[in-house]
Amino acid sequence: MFSPARRYGIAGAALVLWALTACGSSSDGGGDGPTTAPATTQTAAKDRGPQCVGESPAGGVHVLRGGGFRLPGGGGVQYAAASADGTSRTATLRDGAAYGSGQRQWTVKPGSRVTVSGHAYTVRQICSYRVVLEPKDAKDKAALAAAPGSMEFAGGAADNTLCFTTNHAVLAAASKSFPAKGQTLSLLDNGGVKQLPTGPSLTVSYVDTAAGTAGLGANCAGVPVANYKDVSVGDTVEFSGVLFKVSGLTEQAVRLTRTSE
């Protein structure tokens, strides 16, 4: 008999006001927001796809499902929830890099334009596992792609340029810390942590072998950068620009097979 699954969430606090224009639509923008974090997405079994809508441009900002991303100018954005009806896909974005009560949130689709703390972005791609934003201003593109002062992580906000970046050298270093394409990474349940050399730490929050689901999370610079709830075998997840498919679930570990270079 398997023991009951343990579930616990990853939460943070950051409040940054922002606005959406064009295709984005407000879904709940009042100041009296919920006091606890809502579910980050529907379960994988209810997601009818398609897996991705739109194209991911070079240098795009990857905001992972359930997680947040700090942006130039002090703003931040979260991929709070996913929705798909079999032919199209939308995402719920929330202001701030981490969850806090009273934050506004909006439903967007590819082509939606968002303005975060005065900085403009276009939603280029929405997947079950990520949203990709493209900065409009060349200065913001340059800031996101800037080389860090050091490739060694120090902990906390000092790691912003490692954790929230499109810099090729940083992403390449993170990529090399994973098994090669086609090989398997095992993330241990019961408090095991996979620490990447560029800062992100990966954890398994729960495994429910009876339901065939698990929760995977990643943190970097004090921000939950991913929180994949209720993933099952065959689902795609992303960490530090690298794609994996969930290939196995046991009470001891979640196995991920790398699918990207």
Summarize the structure in words.
By secondary structure, the protein is mainly beta. Helix content is 8%, strand content 41%. 41% of the residues are buried. The N terminus is likely disordered.
Layout of helices and strands:
Elements: E1 18-21, E2 25-28, E3 52-54, E4 61-64, E5 68-70, E6 76-84, E7 89-95, E8 105-108, E9 113-116, E10 119-127, E11 130-135, H1 138-145, H2 160-163, H3 168-176, E12 184-188, E13 193-195, E14 201-208, E15 213-220, E16 223-231, E17 236-239, E18 242-249, E19 253-258
Antiparallel strand pairs: 1-9, 2-8, 3-10, 4-11, 5-6, 6-7, 7-8, 9-10, 10-11, 12-19, 13-14, 14-15, 15-16, 17-18, 18-19
Helices and strands: which structural class?
Answer: mainly beta
Q: Taking all residues together, what is the mean pLDDT?
A: 85
Number of helices: 3
Structural Rg: 17 Å
Please tell me what the overall shape is: globular
Features of the shown structure:
single chain; about 260 residues; mainly beta; 6-stranded antiparallel beta sheet; globular; disordered N terminus
In summary, what is this structure?
The chain is built from 3 helices and 19 strands. It is mostly beta strands.
